[in-house]
């Protein structure tokens, strides 16, 4: 269903608890995947006849497989601590976008079919049958959760609504009610190797073009190698980095870092995508199959290290799941972590004095940093205190003179989602995306007003794409968002005489 016309919320000083607007987002739902898309990735083509029993069986399977899901269904005491922590609730006022209400959509069904009290006295315990109306409500509101995990930070029981949402997606996929955007992208990765469907020859042309552009800019032969065997590093990066602004600026930055440090590297046309939408639909088989391309490419190319580019959920999959899904990586160089984040890599080189930077090159930029959910809340702390909270900020301070953080309650592990994560970065959800960006836009406005910030750096392809689209709705210039390595690219010195 296409998004209806909507009004952009007014920016206020954060935090603002909205007036309740019951049912305000009940109409919001993304397109359902077509039969072709569903079949291509092994899901039923359309809603199956006996969908109710299939869905309940699937829920039982997930409850048995993931003890955490059962705990989440049972443990909530409805304390309300999470209720005002979701950006989609703050941006829309729809009470069903409170994390606890989102969980309750599944919890009520869980009680009906998987608890004694719910089976015998459903009304007493708030249990409901899984009707078509309930399924439609799931489709609407579980597609209004970006799986950002902010709510779980504030839950005294650590209940993770993102996992509930992922389970809901798995159940809906199992009955033939998949979401078009995510499932179409997964199909493209299986067929072509990346989310954007860029075939190998086009990728090769793009990289050649980048070599020419970078030579023109710097006078130096910075290489963008593809499928080169025996290099030290395999770089796995989001396919958005290959051609669209501002993403490509970061890819140029990575290439310059490899060049300046004298470290051989390559991209792979077989694994030309860091993103992994299998995570968003909660499907480990899809996640594994997509991840396998990375293992295959690393073995085929004979590299010694794997580094992941600027992409939030890609990093979460790589960091949290690769070892289980596609490990072990026992042939790689044991001196380096597997995987390694590009920011860890660059930061380490900076620490060792292996890179020369001219921070004045970014002098016109007054920078802030947006912590991307899947890095901030699902990542290693690394060898230094603060880990992924500190590393990108340290890099920025080395490559730019002016840096100001947003309000403390909106950064690090309390960061607000950009509004486009979790498979929601689709134009049919534009109203949700714009409204869900409200808390981040409010925090940004404050730092713009206070310090004249004109550049918001981030290390996630989805954040970059989402902000590029929604910043103008709030009166900001779309070009004020970019990557940390975009700043690195400008500041790094390559030749002897620069
Ligand atoms: S995981 Fe994020 S989007 Fe989902 S309910 Fe929690 S805060 Fe909202
Ligand atoms: S904070 Fe946790 S226990 Fe409290 S209502 Fe939210 S999910 Fe339930």
Description of the molecule:
The chain has 21 helices and eight strands. By secondary structure, it is mostly helical. It has two domains: 35-185, Fumarate Reductase Iron-sulfur Protein, Chain B, domain 2 (Orthogonal Bundle); 186-404 and 453-491, no CATH class. Strands 2-1-3-4 form a four-stranded parallel β-sheet. It has a four-stranded parallel β-sheet with strand order 6-5-7-8, with helices on both faces. Helix 20 (461-470) links the parallel strand 7 (455-458) and strand 8 (481-483). Helix 13 (284-301) crosses helix 14 (312-326) and helix 15 crosses helix 17. It is globular and about 75 Å long. The mean pLDDT is 94. The structure holds iron/sulfur cluster (2 copies).
Distance between the termini: 54 Å
Neighbour order of strands in the largest sheet: 2-1-3-4
Task: Outline the low-pLDDT stretches.
Answer: none
Q: In percent, how helical is the residue content? A: 40-55%
Rg estimate, integer Å? 23 Å
Beta-strand content estimate? 5-15%
Broad shape:
globular
Biggest β-sheet description: 4 strands, parallel
Number of strands: 8
> How many separate domains?
2
Order of helices and strands: HHHHHHHHHHHEHEHEHEHEHHEHHEHEH
Listed once per kind, the bound small molecules are: iron/sulfur cluster
How many DSSP helices? 21
Question: Overall pLDDT, averaged?
Answer: 94
Structural class: mainly alpha
Describe how the helices and strands are arranged:
Elements: H1 35-40, H2 51-65, H3 67-75, H4 87-92, H5 99-114, H6 116-120, H7 132-141, H8 150-154, H9 161-174, H10 180-192, H11 200-218, E1 233-236, H12 247-261, E2 265-266, H13 284-301, E3 305-308, H14 312-326, E4 340-341, H15 342-351, E5 366-369, H16 373-376, H17 387-399, E6 402-403, H18 430-436, H19 438-451, E7 455-458, H20 461-470, E8 481-483, H21 484-491
